[in-house]
C-alpha cells in the first residue's frame, strides 16, 4: 500500500482524513491484497491508537466496529499459520490493540469466526460424504436404474445443504417449502 509512504505523521488533522480514506479502501480491498499490506498497515494503526491527538485515537476506537470484523479472519488465520515470527508479533500486537479497545467486539468477532469455520467444516464433510456416495454408485453402475438412483441422491444432497443453510442463517431467510 503506497499510501502508507505518504502518511501525515506530524499533522493530526490530515492523519484523521487519511484514516477516513483508509477505511473506505479497507471496505473494498481483496483479502489477498490485504495480507500483503497488513504488516506495515498495523504498525501504523498501532501508532494511531496510541496517538497523543485525541481525534486520531478516537477515530480508530470509534471505527473498530467496522475495521475488526473485516480484518479479524485474516489476522486470526495468520496468527496461527504464518511462518514469519515478526509477522506473528505484529499480528499479536494488532489483535491485542483491538482486544483492549473493545473486548466485547473482539469476543463477538472470535465467536463469529469460529462459527464460520464450523459451518465450513460441516459443508466440507457433507461434500466428502456426497462424493463417497457418488463413487459407490459409480462402482455399482451395473444397476440398470443408475441414472434414477443418481438423481435421487442429488435431490437428497440438495435438501441436506438447504437444511444446513437454514440452521446457520437468520430465521427470516427460509427456502421455499418445495425445496425442503
Automatic annotation (TrEMBL):
- Residue ranges annotated as coiled coil are none
Q: What GO MF annotations does this protein's record show?
A: protein phosphatase activator activity
SUPFAM superfamilies assigned to the protein according to its UniProt record, in alphabetical order:
ARM repeat
Gene Ontology cellular component annotations, sorted alphabetically? cytosol; nucleus; protein phosphatase type 2A complex
Q: Which domain of life is it from?
A: Eukaryota
Q: Name one GO biological process term.
A: signal transduction
One of the Pfam families matching this protein, by short name: B56
Family listed: Belongs to the phosphatase 2A regulatory subunit B56 family.
PANTHER family in the record, alphabetically?
SERINE/THREONINE PROTEIN PHOSPHATASE 2A PP2A REGULATORY SUBUNIT B (PTHR10257), SERINE_THREONINE-PROTEIN PHOSPHATASE 2A 56 KDA REGULATORY SUBUNIT GAMMA ISOFORM (PTHR10257:SF3)
Protein's name according to its UniProt entry:
Uncharacterized protein
Species, as recorded: Piliocolobus tephrosceles (Ugandan red Colobus)
Amino acid at each position: 500500500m503506497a499510501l502508507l509512504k505518504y502518511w501525515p505523521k506530524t499533522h493530526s488533522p490530515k492523519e484523521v482524513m487519511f484514516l477516513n480514506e483508509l477505511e473506505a479502501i479497507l471496505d473494498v480491498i481483496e483479502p489477498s491484497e490485504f495480507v500483503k499490506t497488513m504488516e506495515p498497515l498495523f504498525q501504523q494503526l498501532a501508532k494511531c491508537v496510541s496517538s497523543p491527538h485525541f481525534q486520531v485515537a478516537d477515530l480508530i476506537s470509534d471505527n473498530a466496529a467496522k475495521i475488526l470484523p473485516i480484518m479479524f479472519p485474516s489476522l486470526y488465520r495468520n496468527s496461527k499459520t504464518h511462518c514469519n515470527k515478526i509477522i506473528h508479533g505484529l499480528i499479536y500486537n494488532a489483535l491485542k490493540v483491538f482486544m483492549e479497545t473493545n473486548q466485547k467486539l473482539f469476543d463477538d468477532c472470535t465467536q463469529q469466526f469460529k462459527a464460520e469455520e464450523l459451518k465450513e467444516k460441516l459443508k466440507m464433510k457433507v461434500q466428502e460424504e456426497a462424493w463417497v456416495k457418488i463413487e459407490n454408485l459409480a462402482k455399482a453402475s451395473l444397476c440398470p436404474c443408475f441414472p434414477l438412483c443418481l438423481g435421487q441422491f442429488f435431490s437428497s444432497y440438495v435438501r441436506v445443504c438447504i437444511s444446513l443453510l437454514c440452521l446457520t442463517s437468520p430465521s427470516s431467510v427460509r427456502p421455499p417449502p418445495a425445496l425442503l
